[in-house]
Amino acid sequence: MIEEILTFVMQIVDLPLYGDVKVRDLVFAVTVIIIASVIAKFVAMSLRRSFADKMRKDQLELLVKVSYALIIILAFVSVTPVLGVNLTGLLVAGGILGVAIGFASQRVVSNFLSGIFLLAERPIKIGDQIVVDNVSGIVEDMSIMSTIVRTFDGLYVRIPNERVFSSNITNPVANVARRFEYVVQISYSDDAKKAIEIIRNVIERHPFALKIPPPQVFVDSFGESGVNIIARIWAPSKIWLEVKTSLLWEIKVELEKNGIEIPFPQRVIWFGKTRST
Amino acid sequence: MYGSYRLSNLDISVRDLRLWVEKGGLYRYRRKLGNSEIEKIFLSDQEVILNPVEPVNLPRSITNYLFIQFSKPLLVEPASSVEIYLTFPIEVGVFVVKGDVLDEIDVFSFVNPKYALYGEPRGGVIARFWQSEIFSNPPNVDFLENGVMRLKIQNVSDSWCEVTKVVFDVFAMKIYYSDEIVSSIAEMKIQSRRIAETSFLDKPMFEGMKKAIELYTARRIPILATKFTMEWGI
Question: Which of A83, A185, A259, B132 could form a disulfide with B86 if both were Cys (CB 3.0 to 4.6 A apart)?
Answer without folding.
Answer: B132
